[in-house]
Write a structure and sequence with these properties.
The protein has 174 residues and is α+β, with helices and mostly antiparallel strands. Helix content is 29%, strand content 20%. A 4-stranded antiparallel sheet has the order 3-4-2-6, with no helix packed on it. 17% of the residues are buried.
């Protein structure tokens, strides 16, 4: 039996957890597990995690998701028992794996969807810049233009007048 999952375009900050139901003595090849996602498009496989939960040592799966993926406690709380009870291999599928593209997955054996979680992303904050040199009004000084620019304009004007005078002397002399 397959489970259809529609991934919207530009999906961000979503993590899906899938259980890999294979025999630990004869694990299914990495490529075959990825093929079981049934992706109708190109997945960025370098963004997908496939590992044995035993590799986490004493860390429960829910803690890994909280600390490693920024999943909020409120998201994990209802699923903590199921997540922490997983054994064997799991596949972590972050929205980065879709590269911002809409995609349909037809998840089949040996994969089973465990859950979909949203990363807890705090809003961006724009604090005051710490350096006095970075402060300013963003406008020009009282004269309207900066002194260095005024000086450069005068030098350019003088150069143009000198070139025009030289052209007049050379043309007038012929």
């Amino acid at each position: 039996m397959t489970e259809r999952i529609d991934i919207p375009a530009r999906e961000v900050h979503v993590v899906r957890v899938l259980d890999v139901a294979d025999d630990p003595d004869a694990p299914i090849a990495h490529a075959d597990v990825l093929a079981a996602l049934g992706a109708e498009g190109d997945l960025r496989s370098d963004e997908i995690e496939l590992f044995d939960i035993a590799d986490l040592g004493d860390m429960p799966m829910s803690t890994y998701l909280a600390e490693g993926h920024g999943i909020a406690e409120a998201e994990l709380s209802p699923m903590r028992g199921r997540l922490d009870g997983l054994t064997g291999r799991v596949l972590i599928l972050p929205s980065r794996a879709f590269g911002g593209e809409a995609m349909t997955l037809r998840v089949g054996a040996p994969l089973r969807v465990v859950g979909r979680f949203e990363e807890d992303v705090p809003p961006a904050q724009f604090d005051t810049l710490p350096s006095e040199g970075a402060r300013g009004s963003g406008t020009s000084p009282a004269g309207g233009s900066q002194p260095g620019m005024r000086r450069a304009a005068l030098v350019l004007l003088a150069l143009l007048v000198a070139v025009a005078g030289l052209v007049l002397v050379l043309v007038g002399g012929s």
